[in-house]
Amino acid sequence: MKKGEIREGIVEKTSFPAKGLVMADKIPVTVKDALPGQQIRFSITKKRNGRAEGRLLEVQKPSAAEQREAVCLHFGVCGGCVYQTLPYEEQLRLKEAQVRELLEPVAGEGLMEPILGSPRQFGYRNKMEYSFGDEVKGGRLALGLHKKASFYDIVTVNGCQIADRDFASLVSASRDYFLECGTPFYQKMRHEGYLRHLLVRKAAKTGEILAALVTSSQVPNGISREQSGSEESLLEGFRERLLGLSLEGCLTGILHIVNDSLADVIQSDRTKVLYGRDYFCEELLGLTFRISPFSFFQTNSAGAEVLYEKVREYVGAGDGKVIFDLYSGTGTIAQVLAPVAGQVVGVEIVGEAVEAARENAAVNGLTNCRFVAGDVLQVLDGLTEKPDLIVLDPPRDGIHPKALPKIIRYGVERIVYVSCKPTSLARDLEVFLGNGYRVERMCAVDMFPGTAGIETIVLLSHKSPDSVINVKVEFGKGKGKVPLDAIAERAKKYQPKPKITYKMIQEYVEKKYGFKVHTAYIAEVKRSLGLTMYDTPNAVEELKQPRKHPPKEKVEAITDALKYFEVI
What we know:
Layout: E1 6-10, E2 13-15, E3 19-24, E4 27-32, E5 39-48, E6 51-61, H1 88-107, E7 127-134, E8 141-146, E9 154-156, H2 165-181, E10 195-202, E11 208-215, H3 228-243, E12 250-258, E13 270-276, E14 280-284, E15 287-291, H4 301-315, E16 322-326, H5 332-337, E17 343-348, H6 351-363, E18 369-373, H7 376-379, E19 389-392, H8 403-409, E20 414-419, H9 422-433, E21 437-445, E22 455-462, H10 484-494, H11 502-513, H12 519-528, H13 552-564
Helix pairs in contact: 1-9, 2-3, 11-13
């Protein structure tokens, strides 16, 4: 088997997130976006350590479970809804099995509750981030999502079935308007152009819509810098085009966001309101939430109610306790829990979301919520409150490794962990279980029908000893007493070894051998000996410069230093 080779096979199973497993020459090959039972044709993209990866080229024969045609005309092109051909019951069964496969080896069997489905299978997304570009190089202006496995090509998705129906009208109107104006899109590689993104958000309950056009600060072609009113005229025409649409919802705000970041992300250097206001309001479980363009809020409002009801169930009766809501976003979980808590402290790194959370709490008449802006890693050091219970809802990559010990140090009786990426959750659970916690309950909630995404909730409790033995110890000299000198000797014997630095190794080598060694040489010798390169467990080394291969005499000198300091 070689890279680039074309193979065929039947998918044996699919693991999170939508990674199909095919056997070829008795070697397991992972092929993204392949479903169990499909007969597929794929090309080998990588092979190492007895495993391989492949790229899906064609589904030659669907699986027996695929009992319906894809309802979206963009299916297979944008690469989003890989499960759309499966009946919803089969999607739920597949996702629950994937979560079990990841979590049960860590948490134990028999703890997973039946998966909870989304009240809506289609039109559920309340937020979409569309990109301007072209479908092929030099083609007509497109506005939509990236084509499958492409960083450059954009497919105009005005028929997306998981987004709210109003979004298609907004996409078509925006694309048509700028196509008529001949406005250039932003070229990501050259960092030239004007149109970057269209951000659209809508409230499922209130119907309020917020649309934001994201551009660079570069003057569009055909508009000179002296004609300062020309960009204003262009944006005014955009505003009027959107206001002229017949929408099911209510367009409450149109924004112009300037973003000159080199990264292909939506962020604001400055924001101007073209119409209405810069936020919209949503209702969830009887509470009102004010949501700004960049505030985190679950993309499936109806599904969020299912998710937060389960969180509230896992938290149980608050009985006036202090609850920490870490990674709190706009404070949805904090405010859902406020009625059963004495106090809720939310921590969120996005300042805009924190301001919205404070305003939301005031609107909902909740006086026992406090929100702190900052990174959880730093904020925990300055909090004066001591929690009785902690709720965690971190980003996809999970909790920062250095924040985990600080959370565990509180020693709370229960922790509720909400995760949108079960692989990150499984990794973090190992740390919690290694520090005295155990998993009580687990439940998957499908917030993203048709796609590979899944939310998971885990209830952790701190282990209690099965029995307690009281031992009375007296220190000093005499019969039955423990001598203090013996304790001191034992402590000295087991005290941790001092950390050996690269500078210490360099000084040793220079003093004994008379020449200097570069830190890159020391690192290379450590790699060759299989020594860890970082103090942080599971850290991944990123080489920012080419590796330096030291001469033989320097390898021997460095190895000698490592032996001297008892590193090896």
